[in-house]
Design a protein that fits this description.
5-stranded mixed β-sheet; 18% strand; alpha/beta; 24 strands; 570 residues
Length: 570
């Protein structure tokens, strides 16, 4: 059987337009009993095994061979399928190391205010959504961010009451660490007005926000949840993402949501899903409960602090635009206890930490745990920290010494960095310029895994690489090659797998096929090495990520040797 990779027709809106992608290819019971062998040839194969590779053989769920076109002839007669790439690029599938899948799907299928240009625009969208969903017990929405709104403020409760006709509405800020709600929703949560984080006329944060979120999410039916999860997983594979790390927990989503997602992913027609459950543990019994949920670790969004946008990230010095230092949820002693218990139980530990004070607590706590259980055991466990935005020289050195994986989101800098961005507003220009120091992390030897924190920023792997290379603070930018490694192999290493995320014989057959332009070797600024398009350089190239250039288009995504997405043609 021979197949040619087709040239796709342009489809609808771009990824930024949030149009749901085509459904993944479903193979179900038609899967053959014996492993199929597939030869891909006539393209560019991004592999450290052979920088000149133009062909690849996949046997079952593994890469069997990578090499040049001439040698491919010897395989052509003995394979089940030959795929003619017609110059397309083959890369490892991406891993998004931080995702909230159900929330991402709800943003795709429901009320998403990420594109609202002003408060008035947001209210218009809310009115239209409420009118279109008369049967919903609670209206759910996401994505408002006043940074770009001329009004400079979120909608008031009175405005939301009017826009919804007095119905319950839960509407999260883009960072998901605060929310605005209607009076009708507050009335459904007894005692919420007395909880920390409730301030009349202000967005809900802290305990008040968590209580309202639980009430709102409790109204999502199993069918709605599955629909949302399927939409998010379909979006992921349409973008060449073969694995995602689900960051769940009792303050984010329920156990049914988490176990339902893992079950859906196990059916096998989408990306792999690795689950983390953000709950502290103190004993082997606690650890077994985490494992029983299907989680790899007690990690992910285990909150040490909140977010900068919601003024809840924990800082050493006060915010530039508020007279406080944010919120501390866990101190160094609590971090130490959790990490020690996880290490003893053979679980990964991990934390959400953004502010400099929160990151100090994490490093001090993990170091204290190392004194209890031994530094080698701590390093071998590959504990991880999500976001890690406001690092200092001391905390970078601590990450390196303790082998903590930094699970970071370059789109945060692209969205909120720069002299006029949210970071500068919250922290002042000098502190803002220290955020997200990816070059310093790599120089220190800190393992990096890249992700989106979707729906905070959208699933967008090539856009993520662009943001890491063309950092708004140029000294923090990294090479395209380093960013690509962190978004492919780095995600696998973060879950303890060193044999995956790369196209070499024996590795899992998780790959994507792309339509793209010339391949180059790109420095972490606007320079392009002039020799890089010469094949004699021996350095595998990548697409030119310079802002303004078109990013690659995914033609096919394969997970474990199974095609889970194929871009349709006219």
């Amino acid at each position: 059987m021979s197949e040619r990779i087709p040239e796709p027709a342009p489809q609808g809106t771009s990824h930024a337009g949030r149009q749901a992608p085509s459904r993944p290819v479903r193979q179900g019971s038609s899967r053959p009993a014996r492993p199929r062998t597939v030869l891909l040839r006539g393209g560019e194969v991004h592999s450290p095994a052979d920088p000149f590779a133009t062909a690849m053989v996949v046997e079952g769920d593994s890469i069997a061979w990578v090499g040049e076109e001439g040698a491919a002839d010897s395989f052509a007669d003995g394979v089940d399928e030959v795929v003619h790439l017609d110059g397309a690029l083959v890369t490892p599938a991406f891993t998004d190391a931080h995702v909230h899948t159900t929330a991402s799907g709800l943003a795709l299928t429901g009320l998403d205010l990420a594109g609202a240009a002003a408060l008035s625009d947001a209210l218009t969208r809310i009115r239209a959504y409420a009118a279109a969903r008369p049967a919903d017990r609670i209206l759910l929405g996401h994505g408002w961010d006043v940074g770009a709104w001329p009004e400079g403020r979120p909608p008031s409760r009175a405005e939301l009451d009017e826009a919804t006709g007095g119905r319950p509405l839960y509407l999260t800020r883009v960072d998901v660490h605060s929310a605005v709600v209607t009076t009708a929703l507050l009335d459904l949560v007894p005692g919420v007005r007395e909880l920390p984080g409730f301030r009349s006329g202000a967005p809900l944060t802290g305990d008040a926000h968590h209580a309202v979120r639980r009430a709102a999410h409790a109204t999502i039916t199993p069918a709605q949840r599955t629909e949302a999860q399927a939409a998010a997983l379909a979006r992921a594979v349409s973008l060449g993402i073969g694995s995602i790390h689900e960051c769940a927990g009792p303050e984010i989503s329920g156990e049914d949501d988490f176990t339902g997602l893992l079950a859906l992913a196990a059916e096998g027609d989408g990306p792999r899903v690795v689950g983390y459950w953000a709950e502290t543990i103190a004993s082997a019994k606690d650890a077994e409960r985490i494992r029983a949920l299907g989680a790899l670790g007690a990690a992910g969004d285990l909150f040490v602090d909140g977010s900068l946008g919601s003024h809840t990230a924990h800082l050493h010095a006060p915010y530039a635009d508020a007279d406080h230092t944010g919120v501390a949820h866990l101190d160094a002693a609590a971090v130490a206890a959790h990490v020690a218990a996880c290490t003893e139980a053979g679980l990964q530990a991990g934390f959400h930490a953004i502010g400099d004070a929160a990151l100090t607590s994490v490093v001090d706590g993990v170091r204290a745990a190392a004194e209890r259980v031994g530094p080698d055991r701590i390093r071998a466990a590959r504990h991880r920290v999500e976001h890690a935005e406001m690092l200092t020289d001391r905390t970078v050195a601590g990450f390196a010494d303790l082998a903590l994986t930094a699970s970071v989101q370059p789109a945060f800098d692209a969205t909120w960095g720069g002299p006029d961005g949210m970071y500068a507003t919250r922290l002042g220009a000098d502190r803002a310029r220290t955020l997200n120091p990816y070059a310093a992390l790599l120089k220190a030897g800190v393992p990096l895994a890249l992700g989106s924190d979707s729906p905070v920023t959208p699933l967008d792997p090539w856009g993520t690489l662009r943001a890491a290379v063309f950092h708004r603070t140029p000294a923090h930018g990294i090479s395209a090659r380093a960013a690509f490694t962190a978004h492919t192999r780095g995600g696998w290493r973060a879950v303890g797998r060193d044999d995956a995320g790369v196209l070499v014989p024996g590795a899992p057959a998780d790959y994507a096929v792309w339509r793209t332009g010339d391949l180059i070797v790109q420095a972490p600024d606007e320079r392009v090495e002039r020799w890089s398009t010469d094949p004699r350089s021996g350095t595998p190239g990548l697409p030119d990520l310079t802002p303004g250039n078109d990013l690659p288009v995914c033609l096919r995504t394969v997970v474990g040797g199974r095609t889970v997405y194929r871009r349709p043609i006219e």
